Amino acid sequence: MDATLVMAEAQEGTVPLAEATLKTLAVARKIGAGPLDIAWTGTSLDPLLGQARTLAGIRRHLVFDDPRLTHPTADVMAALVGDLVRDYSHVLMPGTSFGRDVLPRLAGRVGAPAVSDVLEVLDPRRFKRGLYAGNVHAVVRVPDGVPVLLTVRLASWRPVTAEKEAQPAGIEKREVPADLPTEARFVGLERDASARPDLQSARRVVSGGRSFGSRENFALLEGLADRLNAAIGASRAAVDAGYAPNDLQVGQTGKIIAPELYMAFGISGAIQHLTGIRDAGTIVAVNKDPEAPIFKVADFGLVGDLFEVIPALLAELERQGIAR
Ligand SMILES: Cc1cc2nc3c(=O)[nH]c(=O)nc-3n(C[C@H](O)[C@H](O)[C@H](O)COP(=O)(O)OP(=O)(O)OC[C@H]3O[C@@H](n4cnc5c(N)ncnc54)[C@H](O)[C@@H]3O)c2cc1C
Fold first, then answer.
1. Rounded mean pLDDT of the chain?
2. Distance from the CA of 253 to the center of ligand 1, in angstroms?
3. Residues flanking ligand 1, CB < 6 Å
4. Ligand 1: which of 205, 220, 250, 253 to mutate, judged by most atoms within 8 Å of the beta carbon?
5. What is the residue with the minimal CA distance to atom 30 of ligand 1?
6. Which atom of ligand 1 lies at the shortest distance from residue 237's CA?
7. What is the fold of 204-319?
8. Is the per-residue pLDDT at 258 higher than 80?
């Protein structure tokens, strides 16, 4: 009989619920394969479960709550839920680096293929996924008789919203085995200290390219980002030149993002960069070359010098009282 398990992005009991989990739930609903359970792993999960219980259409919340699961490794996760996943026809994880690390291990355990980066559900066994940096969409089919295990391409989906459920789903505490794998151990977590929104989930992104010419100039984007409550992104050329840190790179070998607004300043619009913003809502481009390829995908384009446009834009936002 069909049943679906969503493996929530592990977190430290913090609210709100991770957007990655809510997007993965959206895919599970679209597939619609039998009753839907969510597995939560972490520690001090009660506040999070309080919020999770407002999600509609869930049969059970399966909870692995243990201090040793504060920062689980992929090995630990696979050992923890390796048997549980055998009860499901469909197992879904967010396409985060953690999800991409864990899911193939689970697929190996149940002898099924792992389908990564699902961007469209065609039916409960057929999915669309990107190939060659998103330039080709492949339709893949999981054969009958084996479970479907997949990761979700987060930029392609909208999160479900918490709805009031008349009868909230039950919570089942699950036992955590005494001996968990220890070969790979969590050493430390380095977080971006900035208070700006996270690049991958931000609704607005302002992004810069090689044309800024220096790290100091690149900081021009900070004022604009703060004013618009936006995340900062960068082209690979800007990253390679040392103007922006590696984790801000947008594109084929950087982050794939889908903000409502993407503003590209002095970015040429190479295919590898555009791969990262294919699902963006409105694209605004400022470039001094009217022939720059970015203008082919931009909804609004301005031919101009970014060193004049950004200060003018900031002054106008200030004049109109637009702050955050
Ligand atoms: C395998 C592979 C993977 C790659 N992955 C990525 C990736 O993930 N992300 C990515 O971004 N790139 C990636 N690239 C690199 C990509 O091909 C481009 O080289 C890169 O995106 C160019 O960055 P840029 O637009 O900042 O620089 P440029 O191409 O040098 O463009 C600079 C632009 O700024 C404009 N300009 C200059 N001065 C000003 C000014 N004062 N005001 C306004 N406009 C100005 C110019 O007209 C020009 O259009 C990859 C390449 C390869 C081969």
1. 92
2. 13
3. 209-211, 235-238, 249-254, 266-268, 270, 272-273, 276, 286-289, 292, 305-307
4. 253
5. 210
6. 23
7. Rossmann fold (3.40.50)
8. yes
Nearest atom in ligand 1 to 208's CA:
26
For residue 32, how many other CB atoms are within 10 A of its CB? 14
- Name the strands in the sheet holding 136-141, side by side, starting at the edge strand that comes first in the sequence: 136-141, 126-131, 114-123, 148-152, 90-94, 4-7, 36-42, 60-65, 170-173
Distance (Å) from CA 238 to ligand 1 centroid = 8
Cβ neighbours for 298, distance < 8 A, ≥ 6 positions apart: 264, 283, 284, 285
Cα of 193 from ligand 1 centre, angstroms: 27
Residue 12: pLDDT band with limits 50, 70, 90: low
The two tokens of residue 184 are 């790979």
CA 34–ligand 1 middle distance (angstroms) = 46
| Distance (Å) from CA 95 to ligand 1 centroid | 26
Contact yes or no for 40/8 (Cβ under 8 A): yes
Q: How many helices (H) and strands (E) does the chain have?
A: 10, 14
Atom of ligand 1 nearest to the CA of 213: 38
Class of domain 4-173: alpha beta
Domains of the chain by residue range? 4-173, 204-319
* DSSP 8-state symbol, 190: -
What pLDDT shows up at residue 52?
87
Q: In what order do the strands lie in the sheet with 231-234?
A: 231-234, 204-208, 261-265, 282-287, 300-303
Reported pTM: 0.80
Concatenated DSSP letters of 62-129: EEEE-GGGSS--HHHHHHHHTTGGGG-SEEEEESSHHHHHHHHHHHHHHT--EEEEEEEEEETTEEEE
- pLDDT average, residue stretch 234-246: 97
Please report the pLDDT score of residue 324 as a whole number.
59
Q: Is the fold of 4-173 the same as that of 204-319?
A: yes
